[in-house]
Amino acid sequence: MSWQLLLYINLAAGTIRELLNKKISNTVSLFAGLFYITLFAQVFFYVSWVFTSQTLPRYDLYASLCGILIVAGFSFYFAALRISLTQSILFQSYSILVTILLSAVFLGESKYFDIRTFSGIKVVSGTILAFLALWFLLHQKNKKEERLEKKWLYYIAGTILFLGIGSFASISFIHKLTPTEIFINQANTMIPLYLVLIFIGKEKLSIGKKMLAFTFINALVSAIAAVAFYKGLLLMPVAKFYPLQQLSLVILTMITGWIFYHEKDLFTKQKLRGMILGLAGMLLLITS
C-alpha cells in the first residue's frame, strides 16, 4: 500500500472523527461521550494487538499515568468543540509548541528556539503568528461574540497545555513500547478516570443507542486513522508526511465544519485573518 493511499485513508477517517467529535460533544454529556469513545477504541486496539502479535500488550505504570494528562486535554478539547470546530481543530495543533518547549528544556533540544538556525526562526515565527491569530479572534465587534471567544480561549489553552505535556511524556516510552501499547496503557487509566468524573459531575452514563453508535463509529475511524498514520510514517520521512497530514486534516475539517455545522461566522474579516495567521503559524511549527 502506497503512502499516498495511507494518507488519503488517514485524512478521510480523521475528518469523519472530528465531525463526530463535534456531534458527540454537542449532544451528550462531556465525560460520558469521551468514556465510550475511549472504551471502544481500547477494545479495537487491544484486539488488533493480540491478533497481530499473538501476545498480550506490555504494561507500564508510568505510561498508564500519562492517561491523566490525555483525559484533561481531551476534556478541554471537547468543551472547545462545542463553541467552534473550525477554530479548535486548528489551534489544538499548537500543542506541538508545548512539546517542543519541553523538549528544549528537558532533552537539551534548545536548537528549536535558537534564532540563529532555520528551525529556530520557524518556531519563533510560528509562535508569534499564533498570538497574532488569537488577537484577531478575540477582538470582535460583537461583545457577546467576544465573550464567547474568551471562553473558547480558556478551553483551547487547556487543550494545548495538557495534550502538549501528554505528547512529551509519551515520547519517553516510544523506545520501549509501540504506539498501540502506549495507547492501551493510557486507556487503562483514562476509562476508570472518566467513570469517576461522570460520578463526580453527576452525569448520565446512558447516552442512547444512536449516540452509542456514533461513539462506536468514532472509535473505529480513530483507530483506522491512527494505523494509517503510523504505517505512512514507515514509508515516508516524518518531516514530509507529518506536515502534509496535519495541514490537510485541518483544512478538510474546517471546510466540512463549515458545510455540516454551518460555522459561517468563520468568514468574517476579523476571524478570517486570525485563521489564516493561525494556519501559517501551524505550518511553520510542524515543519521546524
UniProtKB/TrEMBL annotation:
GO cellular component terms, semicolon-separated: membrane
UniProt keywords (A-Z) are:
Membrane, Transmembrane, Transmembrane helix
List each copy of the EamA domain by range.
151-286
Which Pfam families does this one have? Answer: EamA
TM ranges: 27-49, 61-81, 88-108, 120-140, 152-171, 183-200, 212-230, 242-260
What's the name of the protein?
Answer: EamA domain-containing protein
